[in-house]
Amino acid sequence: MTLLIDNIGELVTNVVGAGDGGPLGIRRDAALLIEEGRVAWVGAAADAPAADRRIDARGAAALPGFVDSHAHLVFAGDRAAEFVARMAGQPYTGGGIRTTVAATRAATDGQLRRTVGRLRAEALRQGTTTIEIKSGYGLNVAEEARALRIAREFTDETTFLGAHVVPVEYTDRPDDYVGLICGPMLAAARPHARWIDVFCERGAFDVDHARAILACGQAAGLGVRVHANQLGPGPGVQLGVELGAASVDHCTHLSDADVDALADAPTVATLLPGAEFSTRSPYPEARRLLDAGVTVALATDCNPGSSYTSSMSFCIALAVREMGMTPAEAVWAATAGGARALRRDDIGVLRPGARADLILLDAPSHLHLAYRPGVPLVTHVLHNGVPQCQ
Ligand code: NIG
Ligand code: FE
């Protein structure tokens, strides 16, 4: 079975050197052939091969599906009241994480599975074809393993975040909690996780604890990611670079040394503007990172506390309006950038051999994702070459 997407007015390939020569590798009046879940051919619509089925894009824009490389979907309850208080001037401290931990521990497997499934479906409808899902609201051996087991039902990109905060029962013994994470919790999480993450921040884990936790995860074969420099300046970004992290996430408060370290490293800076929006915080300085040559990704950080959005389009609009990114840079960061942050070369790009994860917009250009904020422009989502119900 082959499927041809024909009459694409603007095709964003993210293939350097293709099309217009820009970073998005834009081809105009293009077509794309899919076979067995992969892109089989990309070229001019005039040269399109015959196929078993055909979708007429009618001049619309097509681009790789969004890669949301940072989300916390395994939770119960919500914290709408906390959001309302913040909008009235209360600061975000991360203290509400413990509220969600209590609600999550009290939930059944079925309740958690329904929440993850609802949010995964919500994201997919909006064009997110790959999503990373973290644990981090269980914070004991059984609960972290349960969260990852459920997350694994929805994605291959699962992240063990037992080091989200120190749970109340270990408040006076953080060293013991770090021992628990590196011992039985890691052993229980490992079969269900690809990555390990630590919230390295004042009030969460200090740099020594964070290094110890990430090192034992790495020794067990997990890739490293870090929640770093979200609420204030700190050592998280440089720790991530030191350990060869795939990504350091948030990057809201960066020193020149942090930016220099990232510029010289393969580590991606993943920016999460939904969190700044929902916590009324200053946005990360994307322009400064890009001008220094740092690879930037955009992700939602979808969680019930700091950023309850699953919309990558919204993050693109914020990045353009508030963070000095061009629409092209923001779209690249939300697709190819996310793929880099997950160390994947089969997604975030549309070239022969890549996974056929792509979206069509009710718009002639990717520019409209930022230009028309809040508008549901995604009309078609193809995941592994299969059209999803819209
Ligand atoms: O990435 N910063 C730490 N963790 C989440 C927030 C989690 C929460 O508030 O529930 C974040 O913003
Ligand atoms: Fe997060």
TrEMBL record:
Its EC number is 3.5.2.7. GO terms for molecular function: imidazolonepropionase activity; iron ion binding; zinc ion binding. Binds 1 zinc or iron ion per subunit. One of its GO terms (cellular component) is cytoplasm. Fe(3+) binds at residues 70, 72, 227, 301. N-formimidoyl-L-glutamate binds at residues 137, 303, 305. Its main location: cytoplasm. InterPro entries: Amidohydro-rel, HutI, Metal-dep_hydrolase_composite, Metal_Hydrolase. Pfam families: Amidohydro_1. It comes from the Bacteria. The keyword Cell inner membrane does not apply. One of its GO terms (biological process) is L-histidine catabolic process to glutamate and formamide. The keyword Hydrolase applies. Keywords: Cytoplasm, Histidine metabolism, Hydrolase, Iron, Metal-binding, Zinc. It catalyses: 4-imidazolone-5-propanoate + H2O = N-formimidoyl-L-glutamate. Pathway: Amino-acid degradation; L-histidine degradation into L-glutamate; N-formimidoyl-L-glutamate from L-histidine: step 3/3. It is found in: Cytoplasm. It is an enzyme of class 3 (hydrolase). Catalyzes the hydrolytic cleavage of the carbon-nitrogen bond in imidazolone-5-propanoate to yield N-formimidoyl-L-glutamate. It is the third step in the universal histidine degradation pathway. Belongs to the metallo-dependent hydrolases superfamily. HutI family. NCBIfam families: hutI. PANTHER family: IMIDAZOLONEPROPIONASE, IMIDAZOLONEPROPIONASE-RELATED. This is Imidazolonepropionase. The gene is hutI.
